[in-house]
């Protein structure tokens, strides 16, 4: 009997994981944000603005696409790290404070900046970036 129940648990695990990835519950949406942010950051790291823009809401693409292209030509992001996350609206929106390390091409001196990014969860698209702005220190 124990063997049968453990086998059925293994059988259901992929279905449960797929259901969690839909973001139906508040905790599911919160768990999905970090992975989505990481994929977006990886696209910027590799200088792929066309891929990075797929993580942006359609209404914000016109504002952010030129910025992503500017980053690709003028900067090299070497690290992005989440400093803090604030969820609101039953975890359908989030504000992430991000510490980015980068250098300006062709100067190889690494700088830091902190950005505040607004993200919004869409049932059929997952987490999408709405806006980003640099946070001034001090």
Describe the structure in your own words:
The structure is a single chain. This protein has one domain: Nuclear Transport Factor 2, Chain: A (Roll). Helix content is 41%, strand content 35%. The chain contains 4 helices and 4 strands, in the order H-H-H-H-E-E-E-E. It has helices spanning 2-20, 26-45, 49-52, 61-74; strands spanning 75-88, 93-104, 111-122, 126-135. The chain has a 4-stranded antiparallel sheet. A hairpin with a 4-residue loop joins strand 1 (75-88) and strand 2 (93-104). 12% of the residues are buried.
Provide a brief overview of the structure.
With 138 residues, the protein is an alpha+beta fold. It has helices spanning 2-20, 26-45, 49-52, 61-74, and strands at residues 75-88, 93-104, 111-122, 126-135. The termini are far apart.
Entry keywords:
138 residues; alpha+beta; Nuclear Transport Factor 2, Chain: A; four-stranded antiparallel beta sheet; 41% helix
Structural class: alpha+beta
The N- and C-terminal alpha carbons lie at a distance of: 63 Å
CATH architecture label name: Roll
Task: Tally the structural domains.
Answer: 1
Strands in their spatial order, largest beta sheet: 1-2-3-4
Overall number of strands:
4
Please count the helical segments: 4
Shape: globular
**Relative strand content:** 25-35%
Q: How helix-rich are the residues, as a percent range?
A: 40-55%
CATH topology: Nuclear Transport Factor 2, Chain: A
User: Which residue ranges are poorly predicted, with pLDDT under 50 across at least 5 consecutive positions?
Assistant: 1-8
The string of secondary-structure elements, in order, is: HHHHEEEE
The radius of gyration computed from the alpha-carbon positions, rounded to a whole number of angstroms, is 18 Å
């Amino acid at each position: 009997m124990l063997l049968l129940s453990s086998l059925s648990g293994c059988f259901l695990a992929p279905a449960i994981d797929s259901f969690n990835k839909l973001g139906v519950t508040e905790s599911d949406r919160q768990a999905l944000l970090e992975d989505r942010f990481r994929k977006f950051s990886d696209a910027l790291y590799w200088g792929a603005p066309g891929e990075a823009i797929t993580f942006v809401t359609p209404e914000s693409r016109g504002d952010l696409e030129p910025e992503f292209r500017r980053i690709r030509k003028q900067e090299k992001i070497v690290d992005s790290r989440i400093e803090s996350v604030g969820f609101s609206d039953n975890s359908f929106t989030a504000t992430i404070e991000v510490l980015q390390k980068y250098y300006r091409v062709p100067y190889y001196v690494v700088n830091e900046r902190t950005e505040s990014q607004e993200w919004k969860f869409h049932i059929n698209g997952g987490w999408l970036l709405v806006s980003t702005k640099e946070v001034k220190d001090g």
